[in-house]
């Protein structure tokens, strides 16, 4: 019977020269004019089900119940109770139903999600060809294509409820918010367009009371320089001042306590007396009696000189006294004769000026 048909060459250009089976390697060797090809004699792993393994009637293959695989028949027979093989090897059952089996998954690749060129996914697929369903066998169960990491553009959630007004008087606002999470952008997707916050003025609020600024009590600044003494001797005073500006009283704050001006004594030493003589006064004609009033009799003239004394430069403290006087008799012809001096003797001090 026909057990298996193998194609030695695809093109037919090679000529098969020799063929031999070697039990040592359990392989069939094919010699052509171009190459020597080794073909394993047992190919148990191609049978993925128990029925396929047993129906192959392959004398080199058994079904291992422990691992549920079609495997080469081992040389050791210690675990024979777990092996299954057709009770009697005959020709292969070629028309037995063969259920389909999935191939391995192909690598992930970029695939287009829909008509938008910037919306892609990662896709991979597999085929129901390991083996293919044959002779009425069941098809593979499950999906043949997997899709993941699709481009997901962001979408807005619903607006939240309006918040409370930011204050209870004057100009106030209330806000509402939304988020870009319905769905969130993923795998290169676009973020949401627009604002995530909306604001609205609160209406019909009463005006806010005008806040009263806090009061600031005044504080003294530094003292200024002392003024000149009011007297050079005999006791005077001098003054200095300061300003209530550090800080100045504000908004009903208290004024600075204490005095703005400060006085102190100065130049308390005694003054030395200053004495000066005035210049002579002009000659003054004295009145004469009627008995002696004749055009030929002489008349009397006098002049005076005064002494000024003070112990202070202040003019109000000056004391004036008669220091000296002179008299003379004058005739009609203009000649005069001085009399003896009266009063104090002449001072040698400088004249008052």
From TrEMBL:
It is found in: Membrane. One of its GO terms (cellular component) is membrane. The keyword Repeat applies. Residues 323-345 have a biased composition (Basic and acidic residues). Keywords: Differentiation, Disulfide bond, Glycoprotein, Membrane, Neurogenesis, Repeat, Transmembrane, Transmembrane helix. Its main location: membrane. Pfam families: PSI, TSP1_2, TSP_1. This is CG5661.
């Amino acid at each position: 019977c026909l057990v298996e048909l193998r194609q030695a060459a695809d093109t037919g250009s090679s000529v098969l020269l020799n063929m031999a089976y070697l039990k040592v390697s359990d392989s069939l060797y094919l010699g052509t004019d171009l190459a020597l090809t080794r073909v394993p004699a047992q190919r148990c792993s191609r049978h993925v089900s128990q029925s396929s393994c047993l129906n192959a009637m392959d004398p080199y293959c058994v079904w291992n119940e422990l691992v549920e695989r079609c495997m080469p028949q081992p040389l050791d027979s210690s675990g024979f109770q777990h092996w299954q093989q057709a009770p009697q090897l005959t020709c292969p059952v070629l028309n037995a139903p063969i259920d389909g089996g999935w191939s391995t998954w192909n690598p992930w690749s970029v695939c287009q999600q829909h008509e938008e060129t910037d919306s892609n996914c990662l896709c991979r697929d597999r085929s129901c060809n390991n083996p293919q369903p044959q002779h009425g066998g069941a098809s593979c169960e499950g999906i043949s294509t997997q899709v993941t990491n699709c481009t997901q553009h962001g979408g807005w959630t619903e607006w939240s409820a309006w918040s409370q007004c930011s204050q209870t008087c004057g100009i106030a606002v209330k806000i509402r918010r939304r988020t870009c999470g319905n769905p969130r952008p993923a795998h290169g997707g676009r973020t949401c367009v627009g604002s995530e916050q909306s604001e609205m003025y609160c209406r019909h609020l009463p005006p806010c009371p005008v806040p009263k600024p806090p009061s600031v009590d005044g504080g003294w600044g530094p003292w200024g320089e002392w003024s000149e003494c009011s007297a050079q001797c005999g006791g005077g005073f001098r003054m200095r001042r300061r300003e209530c500006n550090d800080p100045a009283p504000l908004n009903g704050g208290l004024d600075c306590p204490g005095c703005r001006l400060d006085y102190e004594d100065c130049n308390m030493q005694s003054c030395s007396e200053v004495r000066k003589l005035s210049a002579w006064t002009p000659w003054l004609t004295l009145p004469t009696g009627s008995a002696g009033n004749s055009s030929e009799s002489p008349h009397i003239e006098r002049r005076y000189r005064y002494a000024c004394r003070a112990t202070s430069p202040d003019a109000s403290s000056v004391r004036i006294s008669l220091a000296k006087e002179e008299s003379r008799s004058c005739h009609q012809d203009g000649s005069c004769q001085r009399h003896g001096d009266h009063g104090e003797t002449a001072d040698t001090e400088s004249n008052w000026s």
